[in-house]
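Hi support team,

I submitted a single chain yesterday and got back a structure, but I'm not sure I'm reading the token output correctly. Could someone confirm the output below corresponds to the sequence I sent? I've pasted both exactly as they appear in my results page.

Thanks,
R.
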Amino acid sequence: MFKRSLRGAVLSASAALATALLTPGTAQAATPDITIYITNSFTNVASISYHDDGDKFTVCDLYGDSHGVRGSLYHAGDRVATKYNGLGSGNCTTFTYDVKAAAGVYDMQVCLVDGSSDTTGSSCEHKHISE
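Hi R., thanks for writing in. Yes, this is the structure output for that exact sequence:
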């Protein structure tokens, strides 16, 4: 009797495992959040983060150094979105842009700037992102 119920349990477990392995999954790989920093003397002074869910970009000023921060997104060499953060240390601003998988690679950039009209920036950091 014990052998028969043990054999039935093993067969049931094997059938469940085979079903789980042979059933196609529907989950898709998600792009992780990406953050890049400008670092000065081992201190993070500014950042830009990309959150794929909602295509949200967050531009943060992390240090009181009298500089503002500009976060930008480029595609094929053209700036497609930008946000200036002149709110001071500890503050963040956001913008959204629909990053499309079919469009390929984008370039996310963060720079220290001296006012909203400063278009060149300094100490810039960048990273390639894609959907």
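A quick pointer for reading it: The longest helix spans residues 2-22. Let us know if anything else looks off.

Best,
Support desk
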